[in-house]
Amino acid sequence: LSPDSVPTQAERERYAELVDLVQKYRAAYYNEDAPLVSDAEFDLLYSELEKLEALHPELVTNDSPTQTVGGEASVAFAAVEHLARMYSLEDVFSLAELEAWLRRAAGSVEKQHGTAPQWLTELKIDGLAVNLLYRDGVLVRAATRGDGTTGEDITHNVATIKDIPQRLHGSNFPAEVEIRGEVFIASKDFAVLNEQMVAAGKAPFANPRNSAAGSLRQKDPAVTARRPLSMFVHGIGARQGLHTETQSGTYELLKSWGLPISPYYKVLDTLPEVMDFIASYGEHRHDLIHEIDGIVVKVDDLATQRELGHTSRVPRWSVAYKYPPEEVNTKLLDIQVQV
Ligand code: NAD
After folding, report:
1. Which of 34, 38, 181, 318 is close enough to 233 for a disulfide, judged by CB 3.0 to 4.6 Å?
2. What CA–CA distance (Å, rounded) separates 244 from 178?
């Protein structure tokens, strides 16, 4: 079949079914913090949707899940417009796909600049994306990602997380900067939290990601305050008066301001080094502070990031490699998720 062949009735019906399923599962995951299926099952349905669209581009609409960032701001929280849009990440599920992606991106950068890019490699933290807005060094607002344009105001809840400074350390801060990162529950804290739940006669949480998301999206910040939430920052949105040249250089600046930066990131020159990073963390993924669901590779140079730009859903200068699921334990999902 050529990519523009007319979809059959059966394909149209399957497509509509997939869109409904993905939207339903996204709503449960992002809005209720209570997934109905495993991530691996969700990723399979999403890939099937992408493949049908690649085969029949006429099926794609602007509101297709492949064109939008998942999650809607709940009416339980005040809506917050992000100053700069928040994106998702392009996923690849095999090393061959990753290599092809990196070669393509390196080729296009080399054509433009004469040299291949340096790669910033990081762990893909399995947490909840949060946007922190600092004005003159003071945290004035915190919000969830939502649909990427509008998130939920969780400023009071974020104020209970000790990793996140209310006031940046030092001086000479930019007038305005949006700092993005992942809120998570560290593996050892999660184990203690679940022991406490069981000791109190309550159902344990299904996994750290959903308990972190549920803990942060509480109406009562006092509940959030009792949960062991941590954060690592991994990106910048709007910036006014912040002049850095690389993503890694930005991290070091953020660190000097007292923001929590992951200890695991590396700047690498070659593709084999990136592959080694992935193999090494694939082996040691359970020896880390937090759970991961993959590795993120970013072009380190910010000017090159700007040149490569974004699609409506993802940056073109970054890719997420997802490790194969270790074991799909759908039983866990039967446990009522506590929030
Ligand atoms: P994603 O989780 O694949 O990647 C994007 C997000 O990764 C970013 O928004 C960012 O917050 C986060 N991230 C973590 N570490 C990062 C780092 N070092 N650098 C940059 N970003 C980092 O995409 P998504 O759109 O948030 O969610 C899709 C994924 O969520 C699916 O692949 C699936 O695994 C899961 N999901 C599961 C269900 C379910 O029902 N189980 C439903 C919806 C989504």
Report:
1. 181
2. 14
Other residues' Cβ atoms within 10 Å of the Cβ of residue 26: 19
Which atom of ligand 1 sits closest to the CA of residue 123? 18
With bands split at pLDDT 50, 70 and 90, how would you rate the model's confidence at 335? very low
80 CA from centroid of ligand 1 (Å): 20
Residue whose Cα lies nearest atom 37 of ligand 1: it is 39
- List the catalytic residues: 124
For the chain, percent of residues with pLDDT exceeding 70? 95
Q: Which CATH class is domain 9-59?
A: mainly alpha
3-state SS record for 236-258: EEEEECCCCCEHHHHHHHHHHCC
| ipTM reported for the complex, 2 dp | 0.96
77 is in an annotated binding site: no
Residue 238 assigned ligand-binding role: no
Mean pLDDT of all residues in 12-21 = 96
How far apart are the CA of 73 and the centre of ligand 1, in A? Answer: 16
The verdict on the CB of residue 298 being under 6 Å from ligand 1 is no
Tens of pLDDT, residue by residue over 293-316, are 999 999 999 999 999 999 999 999
Is beta strand 318-322 parallel, antiparallel or unpaired with respect to 91-92? Answer: parallel
Tens of pLDDT, residue by residue over 93-107, are 999 999 999 999 999
pTM of the model: 0.92
- What are 231-267's pLDDT values in tens digits? 999 999 999 999 999 999 999 999 999 999 999 999 9
CB 43 less than 6 A from any atom of ligand 1? yes
- Is the beta carbon of 147 within 6 A of some atom in ligand 1? no
What own/partner pairs with CB < 8 Å and gap ≥ 24 does 277-284 have?
Answer: 277/121, 278/95, 278/98, 278/121, 278/321, 281/123, 282/323
Which atom of ligand 1 is found nearest the CA of 38?
A: 41
User: Where along the chain do its domains lie?
Assistant: 9-59, 79-334
